[in-house]
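<amino_acid_chain>
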Amino acid sequence: MYHLYEFATKGSDQPGDSNFDRQIRKYLNEKEFKQFKDAVEKRKQQKEISSSLSTKVSNPRMQQFQNLIQNKRNASPPKKQKIELNLYINNDTAESIPPKPKTHGGNTNLLEYSRSDVPEFVELLRLLQSSDWKDRATGISRLVATVEDNLHKLQDRDILELFDALLPRLSESNSKVNSLAFISLNKVIPLLSESLKPFANRVVEIIANSLGSTNPQIRTSCAQAFDTLLRCVDSTTLLPHLVTTINATNARTKAIIMEKLRPVVQNAFLKKPSVVIKYLLPMCCKLIKEAKTNVKAANISILKTLYFLMKEDLFEQISNSMAECSISAEEMQRIRDYVT
């Protein structure tokens, strides 16, 4: 209220005759007005005393004390010191804290967390994740024998750890390690074919990236592993991942994968025709417009396989998806001409 009164009477030499006083008298009687003025005056005196104490200190020691208090108020709170836990753990009564797992190539070192009961398997994981390429090559060379010798002991978690360690070696920058990884994958796929289903998408994607490699050894070993994968892993599991990879990759790799699809398509259609119709048929319809000769030829070969399996039902299924695949009547006739 004091601040309001001070603002209203600012600039007036006679506050009692100010406009504010005349206005407030309209709402207060004489007694209430006197109480109001006394309260304002009291607040004004308190402010003057406080201002005097803060600006006029005759005692130098008091001034020094006030400055010290003010500096402490303005100072930022002290930062919490980082305490290393192992400094105050009693080694005689408490267990030491496990170190943070190291990484190599962006992957957690599985050895730190491996729960395998097979010592040879734990050592294999250590080698596969080593920072020394010679150790990694040694681990890959031991991989097939270790899996064969301990196949009955390996649990799902062991296989998960194995592929988490092996798959990065399939895209290894060291060409020798990379080629050895595909050779080992080719041999281990038949041993773990049923266990590969959870990793099928990752394996297909990595293999696709190396099918067109400029390194002959990598390209050959990769193609052999791919053939083994198509032969040993369930076709209805592989087909959706193969179609996804074909849609995403370059023309050269498209043709390589599509040329190998015939047995997969036949097996998948016999087991589950809906998978072929849902995933493969829309891809073939879209690739009718493909200009690349090798991709076009591979696509026609797949359409002929589908016609062999489905007969006239093939054209009915294409008609049902013409809008989705943007197939014109002219392109529909072209498909018929290709396959009949």
The chain has a mean pLDDT of 79. The chain has 18 helices and two strands. Residues 30-55 form the longest helix (26 residues). The radius of gyration is 41 Å.
